[in-house]
Amino acid sequence: MDYIHAHLSDLSFLRGMTFGVVHVGIMLIGYYTGFSINRFLKIVSKGYIAGIIGAGFAHIVADFIAAMLDKDLRSATVGIVIGGILPLLLIPFLEKYIAKNPDHIVVGDHEDVKKDLKGHHHGTKK
For the whole prediction, is pTM greater than 0.85? Predict the structure, then answer.
C-alpha cells in the first residue's frame, strides 16, 4: 500500500500526459478541420507518396509542438523530431524494393477516399 501511495502522491506516472493530449489533439483538429498537407505534396509527388509523407510530416510537427509544451519532455524535443524524420528517409528504399498489393487503398484527402472506394469492390468475390 505504501508503494501505491508513494506513486500516487507525486503523480510521476502522468509524465508525458501533456505530450499525448497535445499530439492527438493536433491530429484530431487537423482531421476535423480538413487541413491536408497531402494537397500541397501532391503537386510535387505521386499522390499516394504525398499521403505517406504528409502523415509522417504531420506527426513530426505534432511531436515538436507537443514536446515543447510538455515540461517533462521539452529537453527531448530535438531527439523526438530527429527520431520522426529518420524513418521518412526509408521511403525511397521502401518504394523501390517493397512490393505493393494492387488491391491496397492508400487514403489521403476525403475526395481521394471517395474515388478509391468507387474503384474497388469490397466484399465481393472475384
Answer: no
